[in-house]
């Protein structure tokens, strides 16, 4: 019937497509946040290999042994614990941003906006609030990470690795963390676009209800 047809047609609308993009962005934010968190592994002493230490990202590193290896492991663990709350907060936010558009898609497929058109105005308001809230959230995320990278733990860790000739342990934002910032900005723009589309759909629903004979 016409009701089932409307449900299927919604998934082909601009608002639904924008919400699906929001779902994809939220998933990517979750993934990049988990990469930023990393692992608590650090260096692990393996007596069977003659004191060789294996780094968490793979590969045998024989440059560390004894006191240096233990210090490297301690610094890795402390560095991980410093970043853990920030990464967890980002993952929680990413999870909420994932659930939100999924709920809105379900609500629209069930035709709630058709029977209660004011829902679209509520949806518009929520989108604007989230879009505006994304800005300070991104600032907090990046500012907190930079504070960790400017800490004495990170500086000592960087110097220890460089003294052994290892690269890639710099005290600066890496690709996944920069990606979270960019994805957050893209998500904020998508939310603003969805807010505009919600207002447009509200007007459309209101006009169609005024002309029931044309449906």
Tell me what the structure shows:
The chain crosses the membrane at residues 21-43, 86-107, 119-142, 178-199. This is MALD3 protein. Keywords: Membrane, Transmembrane, Transmembrane helix. This protein has one domain. Helix content is 74%, strand content 4%. The protein has seven helices and three strands. Strands 1-2-3 form a three-stranded antiparallel beta sheet, covered by helices on one side. Helix 3 (66-109) crosses helix 6 (152-163). The two termini are 12 Å apart.
Overall average residue pLDDT: 81
Q: Provide the spatial order of strands within the biggest beta sheet.
A: 1-2-3
The unreliable regions are 40-62
**Shape by Cα distribution:** elongated
Measured by DSSP, the beta-strand proportion falls in: under 5%
Number of helices: 7
Using DSSP, what is the number of strands?
Answer: 3
Taken in chain order, the helices and strands follow as HHEEEHHHHH
* Rg of Cα set: 24 Å
As for the number of domains, it is: 1
Structural class assignment: mainly alpha
Distance between the termini: 12 Å
Helical percentage: over 70%
Q: How is the biggest beta sheet arranged? A: 3 strands, antiparallel
GO cellular component, one term: membrane
Membrane topology: Multi-pass membrane protein
Transmembrane segments: 21-43, 86-107, 119-142, 178-199
Subcellular location: Membrane
């Amino acid at each position: 019937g016409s009701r089932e047809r409307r449900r299927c047609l919604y998934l082909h609308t601009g608002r639904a497509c924008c919400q699906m993009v929001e779902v994809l962005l939220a998933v990517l934010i979750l993934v990049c946040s988990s990469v930023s968190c990393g692992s608590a592994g650090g260096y692990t002493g393996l007596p069977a290999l003659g004191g060789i230490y294996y780094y968490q990202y793979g590969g045998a590193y024989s440059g560390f042994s004894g006191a240096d290896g233990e210090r490297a492991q301690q610094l890795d663990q402390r560095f991980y614990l410093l970043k853990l709350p920030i990464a967890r907060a980002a993952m929680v936010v990413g999870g909420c941003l994932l659930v939100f558009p999924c709920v809105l898609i379900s609500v629209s497929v069930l035709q709630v906006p058709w029977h209660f058109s004011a829902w679209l105005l509520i949806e518009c308001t929520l989108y604007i609030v989230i879009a505006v809230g994304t800005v300070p959230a991104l600032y907090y995320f990046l500012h907190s990470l930079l504070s960790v990278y400017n800490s004495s733990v990170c500086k000592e860790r960087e110097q220890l690795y460089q003294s052994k000739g290892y690269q890639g342990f710099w005290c600066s934002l890496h690709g996944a963390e920069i990606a979270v910032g960019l994805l957050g900005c893209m998500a904020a723009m998508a939310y603003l676009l969805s807010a505009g589309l919600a207002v447009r759909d509200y007007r459309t629903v209101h006009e169609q209800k005024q002309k029931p004979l044309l449906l």
